[in-house]
Backbone:
DNA sequence: TCGAATGAAAT
DNA sequence: ATTTCATTCGA
């Protein structure tokens, strides 16, 4: 599509020329790596890729594309969206409020209002947002070291046709051009979506935060892209490409299903995640008829995760996801135990590395053998349903919420249960998806979009049902804990117990079949896949027993043993552990666990736990997973402890990266696996943290602002009076959501209107953008004067009169009052100063900032309340007087 | 796809 | 000093 043009790339553009002939179908790896940055892991990935490459997969084209992809990397960086600034965060957090108040208002109008609010917002409050934005930015930069806000000119933006689009797109497009980007963008658009995945509390809110994850996204996208490219279909190149690595992966592994299917491709275009999902789904579709894909999943494992995220998309995926999750759990367990282990037999524990391939198959074989037959049918059905459901999942989000509660539980249990039910599938996938998302780096929003898209695509089905639930993952901490538990349990040998516990929960859900379903699903797929995989991928399979259909299993197997173990376990007694886990809500972890559980259940577990554990253990050890896990755990603890963004960020970034990287490479070797885990955790943590922070940001009640605004339509008023000012103060903050504050503000709200000095101006800062505004309003002059003198010149009136609030003032006045005498007094006094005599003098003394403050004070004065000045502290509450502030300044 | 706002970064 | 673009979503 758009393709060619991409600014940057175009060079390659088009075609492919492939710059690099790397192969690797999996370019994505590289890309990811780049994105990820730092980590050199790429290399590993490459290796893996090579392996994959072995598989025929795509043609050279892919490679070429890869080259492009590399570009993508760049693009990827670009791709990353800028972190939101304080104002945007504010908008994000308050837009909904504005909308509620003014349903009719369109976003633009809402934006204006928000701007007004922002203008009025107390400095303190603003500072909160500013700080958050800063943290966000810092984290973002860590994740995207070389990130440039402006792509710069390079991009010939204009060049291409519609330049216009270009600009905006630029980045995105660029990426698109590359391949990946596009998809993401698309996704972005879609934001509409409810955000399936994230059941997280305020996914929406998080969106911004999600940015942080961008890096991961990039990575993902990159992968996708790369893979897509790899695929090659010339014609569709883009699309196909999109399928991307995963897809390719799957294909490869599976043998490919072949991508080619044009149809599939199309869908893929969408965002990265989306693509992902599509990919997976596509694959699934492709496969759907036949289960092929699994293999691929297994291969990546990570992919699996991804897929899981995507999973929604396909039934198969879900399974896979589950497996992956299980896988992780298994790892966890193993690690913890240390275990026991052994089972040499299995072998391939390594699987994870190869992921898909090798080990998994073996595993699959075993598991599959056991389960396949029985499950297959079920699985298939379930799979289909799942797929459908998935689409709908979005809708389900609602449910998700419900599930969320469970999530923790669900995570563990759900897998099983879920698997049975569509919901389960959904759930699983969702959770995973979330994690995956994170991993990928996709933002929630994006994800949502993607999902939406998917829905659209598939939405037809909707099953609706319960799907959703899984979305979420939850806090990292909890995850960690859960993990810990798991580990302990494992060590103790509780596995079964946990399982049991889990199961019970499942029970809640109806469905009985569920267990089987999971397995079943797997089995069918497995079968198909197995074939394909073998063919395609192959090799790994080695084991193969074959018949086994094992994709899923294999996957699981790869992941691991755990699955097998689980098999044994099926039974399950509940154990406390489970409960515990749930509590913790280890989203990711849980998911894993749950997956494991599911698997187990599903699997039926023919194998003994031991075997499973052993396998896992080996695998973990070999890969270093244990270490990583531990590290993660520690990390998680730490981060949790710290709590704040900064720390978190750090973790976040690192983890994400790692994760992403690992994810990318995922299969590759050991390291990555670890990364995954960490990654997951990290992501989860980060997300959580950010969410928390974001949520913690104060929310002001609209009312306050509204009054002001409404009263004064900012501009409208402009007016000459000038006066006014604003009110800033009112902040009525709700701190965090709490509206409780409303009452508070109400009290506070009152503004006092002052008259205020024209000059007021607010202006504190006049920042670039502000300047713009000022210009518009003419305020600038004033401001400047302020610096030096004031010249009210003409413009003054306008100024920001926005605030002006006369009416508001009135209102406020009524309300206000609370401030009381003191406040008002102070305010007044200040005003007086500022205005009157002071003005001139003031100008001299005060810096712009001071003036701004004064102005603010005045406003406050009206509004009242708050204004907390610096001194205040936070409290907004009251008053504090503006005056004080002014004084302070002086 | 544009736009309305603010802000940070880049040019 | 100006340009880009981040979020949001109705037109």
Residues:
């Amino acid at each position: 599509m758009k393709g060619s043009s991409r600014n940057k790339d175009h060079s390659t553009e088009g075609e492919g020329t492939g710059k690099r002939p790397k192969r690797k179908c999996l370019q994505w790896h590289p890309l990811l790596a780049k994105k990820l940055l730092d980590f050199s892991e790429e290399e590993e990935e490459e290796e893996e890729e090579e392996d994959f490459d072995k598989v025929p997969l795509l043609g050279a084209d892919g490679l070429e594309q890869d080259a492009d992809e590399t570009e993508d990397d760049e693009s990827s960086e670009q791709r990353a969206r800028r972190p939101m600034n304080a104002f945007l965060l504010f908008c994000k957090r308050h837009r909904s409020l504005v909308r509620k108040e003014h349903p009719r208002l369109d976003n633009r109008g809402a934006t204006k209002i928000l701007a007004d609010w922002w203008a009025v917002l107390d400095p303190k409050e603003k500072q909160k947002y500013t700080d958050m934005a800063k943290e966000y930015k810092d984290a973002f930069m860590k994740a995207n070291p070389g990130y440039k806000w402006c792509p710069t000119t390079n991009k010939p933006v204009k060049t291409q046709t519609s330049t216009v689009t270009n600009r905006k797109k630029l980045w995105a497009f660029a990426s698109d051009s590359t391949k990946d980007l596009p998809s993401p963008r698309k996704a972005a658009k879609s934001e509409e979506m409810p955000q399936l995945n994230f059941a997280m509390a305020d996914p929406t809110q998080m969106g911004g935060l999600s940015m942080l994850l961008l890096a991961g996204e990039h990575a993902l996208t990159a992968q996708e892209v790369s893979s897509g490219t790899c695929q090659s279909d010339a014609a569709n190149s883009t699309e196909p490409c999109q399928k991307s690595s995963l897809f390719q992966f799957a294909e490869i592994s599976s043998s490919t299903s072949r991508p080619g299917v044009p149809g599939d491709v199309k869908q893929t275009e969408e965002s990265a995640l989306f693509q992902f999902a599509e990919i997976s789904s596509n694959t699934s579709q492709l496969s759907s008829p036949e289960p092929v894909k699994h293999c691929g999943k297994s291969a990546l494992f990570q992919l699996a995760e991804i897929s899981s995220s995507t999973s929604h998309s396909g039934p198969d995926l879900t399974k896979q996801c589950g497996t992956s999750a299980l896988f992780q759990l298994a790892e966890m367990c193993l690690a913890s135990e240390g275990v026991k282990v052994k089972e040499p037999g299995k072998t391939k524990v390594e699987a994870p590395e190869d992921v898909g391939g090798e080990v998994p198959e073996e595993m699959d074989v075993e598991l599959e053998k056991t389960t396949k037959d029985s499950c297959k049918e079920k699985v298939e059905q379930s799979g289909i349903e799942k797929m459908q459901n998935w689409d709908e999942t979005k809708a389900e989000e609602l449910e998700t919420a419900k599930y969320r509660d469970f999530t923790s539980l669900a995570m563990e249990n759900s897998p099983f249960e879920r698997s049975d039910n569509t919901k389960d599938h959904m759930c699983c996938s969702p959770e995973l998806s979330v994690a995956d998302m994170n991993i990928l780096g996709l933002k929630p929003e994006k994800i949502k979009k993607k999902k939406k898209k998917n829905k659209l695509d598939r939405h037809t089905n909707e099953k609706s049902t319960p799907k959703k639930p899984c979305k979420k993952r939850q806090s990292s901490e909890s995850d960690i804990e859960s993990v810990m538990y798991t580990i302990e349990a494992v060590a103790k040998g509780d596995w079964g117990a946990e399982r049991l516990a889990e199961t019970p929960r499942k029970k809640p859900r109806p469905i009985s079949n569920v267990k089987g379903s999971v397995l079943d699903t797997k089995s069918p797929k497995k079968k198909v896949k197995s074939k394909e995989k073998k063919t395609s991928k192959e090799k790994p399979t080695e084991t193969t027993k074959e018949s086994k259909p094992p994709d899923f299993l294999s996957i699981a197997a790869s992941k691991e043993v755990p699955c097998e173990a689980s098999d044994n376990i099926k039974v399950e007694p509940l154990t406390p552990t489970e409960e515990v886990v749930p509590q913790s809500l280890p989203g990711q972890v849980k998911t894993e666990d749950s997956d494991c559980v599911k698997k187990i259940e599903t699997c039926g577990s023919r194998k003994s736990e031991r075997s499973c554990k052993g396998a896992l253990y080996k695998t973990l050890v070999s890969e270093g997973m244990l270490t990583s896990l531990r590290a993660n755990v520690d990390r998680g603890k730490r981060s949790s402890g710290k709590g704040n963004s900064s720390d978190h960020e750090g973790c976040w970034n690192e983890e994400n990266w790692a994760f992403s990287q690992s994810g990318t490479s995922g299969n590759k070797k050991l390291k990555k696996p670890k990364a995954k885990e960490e990654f997951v955790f990290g992501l989860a943590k980060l997300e959580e943290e950010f969410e928390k922070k974001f949520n913690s940001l104060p929310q002001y009640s609209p009312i306050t602002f509204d009054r002001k605004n409404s009263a004064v339509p900012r501009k409208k008023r402009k007016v000459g009076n000038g006066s006014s000012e604003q009110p800033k103060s009112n902040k009525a903050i709700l701190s965090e959501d709490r509206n409780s504050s409303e009452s508070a503000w109400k009290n506070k709200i009152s503004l006092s209107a002052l008259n205020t000095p024209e000059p007021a101006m607010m202006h504190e800062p006049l920042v670039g953008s502000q300047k713009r505004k000022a210009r518009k309003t003419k305020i600038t002059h004033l401001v400047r004067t302020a610096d030096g003198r004031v010249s009210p010149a003409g413009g003054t009136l306008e100024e920001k009169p926005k605030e002006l609030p006369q009416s508001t003032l009135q209102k406020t006045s009524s309300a206000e009052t609370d401030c009381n005498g003191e406040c008002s007094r102070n305010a007044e006094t200040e005003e007086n100063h500022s205005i009157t005599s002071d003005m001139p003098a003031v100008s001299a003394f005060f810096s712009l900032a001071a003036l701004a403050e004064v102005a603010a004070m005045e406003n406050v004065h009206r509004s009242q309340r708050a204004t907390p000045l610096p001194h205040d502290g936070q409290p907004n509450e009251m008053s504090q007087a503006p005056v004080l502030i002014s004084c302070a300044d002086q």
